């Protein structure tokens, strides 16, 4: 996702210096005019704004504060935009550490998957100081169609956790409905079309039911990443005293899928488990 987002920034005319944890992945960005740094500190030294998109809290901490990390090269007055989905507490701690260097951080996790990253239609939830958000806004508006400042540092990550909890229930609900229709001998495509005009309509029903019917789950958003995100949400729930039974169930199902080797499938693969439990081909 980060490469697609960076490509959209390059096409919008932003001069880029880029770095990827996996060597060799910047070739397409170089064709768009980006320079490639040897490490995050070099990227930070060449930039007024540093955008990060990696997988998890330890990855963000390593990019920011590890050897040759952003913090080693960044200049006072710079801005860090973290589009990763990580723990709100880790975000807040990182913001405090960077503030000591007179650097602002906004957490800006995104929703919309790889398609949204490629098409620049992401939904972006932003936490941080209002002035830092306004500085980040023009960049984020290149990446997504909906950019919302939701509160202070860590708030963007908390909203993303809410987003992932809601998606857990929606994907499970659609999967159960599709399997019920199949087991009932109905024309499932017709069922989906009929439901699309009523209260059961959702993005997941419209865009992922076909994958569940075909039992084929090309990548949109990895099951393993959604499982990671649910771990963040469940930890936040434990911290604030919220009970999330559906999210907990979905996390267990996704743990099983990852164990079975389906972690890189789109998260609609939760239907695999419902199919198997219902006696259909999994």
Summarize it.
The chain is mostly helical. It has 14 helices and eight strands.
Fraction of residues in β-strands: 5-15%
Instruction: Give the overall shape, derived from the CA principal axes.
Output: elongated
**What count of structural domains?**
2
What is the N-to-C succession of helices and strands?
HEHEHEHHEHEEHEHEHHHHHH
Any idea of the CATH class of the largest domain? Alpha Beta
| Helix/strand class | mainly alpha
- Helical content stands at 55-70%
Textual characterization of the structure:
The protein has helices at residues 2-11, 27-31, 40-45, 57-65, 70-73, 88-99, 113-119, 130-143, 155-183, 188-195, 203-214, 223-240, 245-259, 270-277; strands at 17-18, 35-36, 49-52, 79-82, 104-107, 110-111, 122-127, 144-151. With 282 residues, it is mostly helical. The chain is 56% helix and 11% strand. It contains 14 helices and eight strands. Helix 6 links the parallel strand 4 (79-82) and strand 5 (104-107). The strands form three sheets. A three-stranded parallel β-sheet has the order 3-4-5, with helices on both faces. A three-stranded mixed β-sheet has the order 6-7-8. The longest helix has 29 residues, at 155-183.
List keywords for this structure.
56% helix; Rossmann fold; N-(1-d-carboxylethyl)-l-norvaline Dehydrogenase, domain 2; mainly alpha; three-stranded parallel beta sheet; 14 helices; 282 residues; 2 domains; single chain
């Amino acid at each position: 996702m980060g490469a697609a987002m960076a490509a959209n920034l390059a096409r919008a005319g932003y001069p880029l210096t880029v770095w990827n944890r996996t060597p060799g992945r910047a070739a397409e960005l170089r064709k768009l005019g980006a320079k490639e740094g040897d490490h995050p500190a070099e990227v930070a030294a060449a930039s007024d704004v540093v955008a990060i998109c990696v997988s998890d809290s330890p990855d963000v901490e390593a990019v920011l504060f590890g050897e040759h990390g952003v913090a080693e090269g960044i200049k006072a007055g710079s801005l860090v935009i973290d589009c990763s989905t990580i723990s709100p507490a880790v975000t807040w701690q990182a913001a405090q550490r960077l503030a000591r260097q007179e650097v602002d951080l906004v957490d800006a996790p995104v929703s919309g998957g790889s398609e949204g990253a490629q098409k620049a239609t992401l939904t972006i939830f932003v936490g941080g100081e209002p002035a830092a958000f306004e500085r980040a806004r023009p960049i984020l508006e290149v990446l997504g169609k909906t950019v919302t400042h939701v509160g202070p540092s860590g708030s963007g990550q908390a909203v993303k956790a809410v987003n992932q909890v809601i998606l857990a229930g929606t994907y499970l609900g659609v999967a159960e409905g599709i399997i019920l229709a199949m087991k009932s001998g109905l024309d499932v495509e017709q069922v989906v079309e009929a439901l699309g005009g009523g209260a059961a309509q959702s993005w997941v029903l419209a865009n992922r039911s076909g994958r569940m019917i075909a039992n084929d789950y090309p990548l949109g958003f990895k099951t393993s990443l959604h499982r990671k995100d649910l771990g963040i949400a469940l930890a936040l729930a434990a911290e604030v005293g919220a009970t999330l039974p559906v999210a907990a169930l979905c996390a267990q199902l996704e743990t099983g899928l990852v164990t079975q080797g389906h972690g890189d499938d789109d998260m609609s693969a939760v239907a695999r488990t419902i199919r198997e439990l219902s006696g259909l081909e999994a």
